Amino acid sequence: MAERKKEEKEEKEPVKQLSIEDIPGVGEATAEKLREAGYDDMMTLAVASPKDLAEVSGIAEGIASKIIVAARKMADVGNFETGEEILERRREISKLTTGSKALDDLLGGGIETQSISEFYGEFGSGKTQIMHQLAVNATTPVDKGGFGSHVLLIDTENTFRPERIVQMSKAKGIDPEEVLKSIHVARAYNSHHQILLGEKAAEMTKEFPIRLLLVDSLTAHFRSEYMGRGSLAERQQLLNRHMHDLLRFGTIYNAAVAVTNQVSARPDVFFGDPTAPIGGNIVGHTATFRVYLRKSKAGKRIARLVDSPYLPEGEAVIQVGEDGISDVAPV
Ligand code: ADP
Ligand code: MG
Q: What's the pTM?
């Protein structure tokens, strides 16, 4: 089985073997310009627009256009898949426990691979705690209900705490050191950096078996960098691209992707419903599960499944404590 998976992965990614220097007309100097501008693989070039590419790389638009045409021929873009192939891929979907049976049940068994799960809510609602718990759960051996895999975390608010990982691992009776070794954290200093890290995630799979990609927070940088109505379109476009990078990662590597999002509690900047998640429909349409978290009494949180394409809306109560995420103990 493991053997077969590996073969499939290689089959799905023939383009990764080619580098951008393989494109006719792209020499060392041009390749360097392209790389500096973030166009470092065939697929990124294939889906670029000539105008954008010319603008950011300083290459003439005519040449940019030729490079894109060549990249499209060489990259495996827009191939159709049969329904059978898609079904086969969907058979490989696995679920990762959140730590709470009640929340897992709400999600139909846990968060899924090959899709994005979004956890949103106000400050202190437990989003970062859930990210930590998912990381620990993914590294947990398969025979103990985990993926036995490594984890990537893109940390935009500097809220990753290895101490919490140690506490949560001990609570599960697994070796904290092993868990920490399997979690790879990258700080993202701005939205551009965050997008780049999302694109680079695939490279990490060459070295580590990664089945979980976390972004905490998905929207914080975008929110602070693109203020007001004027820059909303640009922000949404970048967020959309980022979300699709994350989804592509999840699909190709059969990995779960979980992201956190805030609510727009600042009516001076974001208009409308103060409990609405940032990024609105752009994020919502790409995420399969959206879970809205609200604070309740004594470490309890109410998790609400919102807008699921195939599960009923509903709520679950979870406990956030020193041991991590769990069900509320019966009284
Ligand atoms: P956010 O939604 O802003 O990411 P967090 O996930 O950081 O929120 O949640 C913070 C909350 O998690 C705290 O208010 C507390 O209730 C709980 N928490 C964090 N660390 C611990 C801990 N060591 N023991 C118990 N509860 C904790
Ligand atoms: Mg947080």
A: 0.79
